[in-house]
Amino acid sequence: MSNSINILTWNVRGVISSSLCLSELLVKSKCDIAIITEHKLKSSCDNYLDSICSDYCSLTRIEKSTNETLSDICRFLGKGGVSIMYKKGIQFSVVEITDISSTRIIGVELKRYNRKSLFIFSVHLPSDSNTQSYVDEINLLEALYNLYSSYGDVLIGGDFNASLYTKDYSHCNLQKSKIMKDLITRNNLACPNIDFKTSGSNYTFNTTRTTLDYIICSKTLSNYVVIYHVYEEGSFSSTSDHLPICMELQTDIKTHVLSKPSASLPAWHKAKPDQIKEYEKYIRNHANFQNISLKTIDDLDKFCTELNSVLHSASSLTIPTAKYKPFLRPEWTPKVKELHDTERQMRRMWINEGRPRGMTHDSYKKYKHAKRNFRNELNDEHDRYMSSVFKDIDESSECDVRLFWKLIRRLKPRSSRTYPVIEYNDEQFDDPPGVSLAFAKHFSDIYNAKENANYCSDFLASIENRYSELVRISRSTNDSFPGGPATVKEIQNIIRNLKRRKAPGLDLTQNEHLIHGGIQVARCIALNSSMQFWKSDMFHPVGKKT
């Protein structure tokens, strides 16, 4: 599966006359998504783009004029119009965005597994001198960007009929250019050739040699732009006076996903006392860091890396391991998993061949056969599991009443849709948004100190004096924390009170690595806890209501 996606935008100036050129360009650019503007198709020919290349599907929006004359109705070509073409074997699920009121904008959502969705909009903004119609389209475009950027990444391409570059102002509408530049500034969008590098031609409109076509995105998403290339005039056959733009975008943009879900972690709850002792003995023999000199942040990073390495080496040699199972189902046996993997593989092969329908197609037939086998085996395993559960309940009901009700409670759903009623400032909140709002108001009031009947200025003065004293001591002392250096006993107490069976961080070090490490881990931390950069940040106290 490719880690990037190629996006093309081109004002074709009538797709019927540019069909051959567009077909060649799709192959040349290895395009996954094509943003087509000003196709000039009428509603009777809205499926024409599907015939240009058999490997692509299209979504088309026809521009309708409000004051259409008889000659406009009778002529073969339409006016304007936008479209998005996408490759049939694309690695994403493509869904059209239907809640767009303008015929100058069309959008699709690319749904990515374990990633944020990518929303792509094709635009063809007005080219006439009517500034108000341009403002209306810009306002709609901004509303769409603000809405869908909260659900994923947004990318906008097409003909904006305005320029973002000062060199083009003498050949374009200054008011429209200012409106578009304000849109870019308000929404912190990235400007090509300013926020990221471009290649090829330095203009997209041949007649005036100005840049009117763009692919724009947020500045965060622009960090994943690999190539932004404007095809030069004469580099391909063209009947349009606009030059196409091709962008390669990395798609491995991670969101909040499980870090290393397949990693094997120590199963501390399964470890025997002898294994815990062996682990502590290994730490005692190998965690010797008395001679390490910590003078810089790099020294501290090196110390932490070496300590983590010793902890993980000890656990891998002495403690049993287990893999995290994100979807734990009793009926999900190894055989079911094998059939599921086969079904997924057959489905990918079917998608890559263009999703053909009918048993005459070998890929479709194999996919349906694999899906049927997987579903039957899963249902059989589920029936076997439920039969064993019911058997246990029948047996326990006759011999052990306590076990019987324990098994019954396991089958009950644990989630509840009943929310507690929270009262705050004489208001009642009984739904999730209301409860969130109540807590937001509560913490807002805490952070904004207000004098009331319970306000104690003397207590506030004593806290501020004590805080000032702590700041003074921490700044004047170079070798210890306020109150003296941390002792081994204090660190042991902190480690002992850590919660167990909690998810590790990116270093995969669990609290149990420290808890079962014994006194040697506490000594290593205490030995290096008096350095200045360990306490370079100060925690500011937050006053509570009395």
The CATH first-level class of one domain comes to Alpha Beta
CATH architecture of one domain: 4-Layer Sandwich
How much of the sequence lies in strands comes to 15-25%
Gyration radius, in Å: 33 Å
The CATH superfamily name of one domain is Endonuclease/exonuclease/phosphatase
* Low-confidence regions: 253-259, 530-540
What is the fold named in CATH at topology level of one domain? Deoxyribonuclease I, Chain A
Could you tell me how far the N terminus lies from the C terminus, measured between alpha carbons in angstroms?
60 Å
Mean pLDDT over all positions: 81
The helix-and-strand class reads alpha+beta
Identify the overall geometry.
Answer: extended
Number of helices: 15
Strand order in the sheet with the most strands: 3-4-2-1-13-12-10
| Secondary structure tally: strands | 17
Described by strand count, sense and barrel closure, the largest sheet is: 7 strands, mixed
Proportion of residues in helical segments:
25-40%
Write a concise keyword list for the protein shown above.
seven-stranded mixed sheet; Deoxyribonuclease I, Chain A; alpha+beta; 15 helices; six-stranded mixed sheet; extended; 546 residues
Could you characterize the architecture of this molecule?
It is a single chain. By secondary structure, the chain is α+β, with helices and mostly antiparallel strands. Among the domains are: 4-250, Deoxyribonuclease I, Chain A; 334-411, no CATH class. It is 39% helix and 17% strand. It is built from 15 helices and 17 strands. It has helices spanning 19-28, 70-74, 131-148, 174-186, 219-222, 273-286, 297-318, 334-352, 362-399, 401-411, 432-447, 457-476, 488-496, 511-515, 519-527; strands at residues 4-11, 33-37, 56-63, 79-87, 93-97, 105-111, 117-124, 152-159, 189-190, 199-200, 213-218, 225-230, 245-250, 264-266, 321-323, 422-424, 427-429. The protein has a seven-stranded mixed sheet with strand order 3-4-2-1-13-12-10, with no helix packed on it. Strand 6 and strand 7 (117-124) form a beta hairpin. Helix 3 packs parallel to helix 4. It is extended. 24% of the residues are buried. Mean pLDDT is 81; it is low at 253-259 and 530-540.
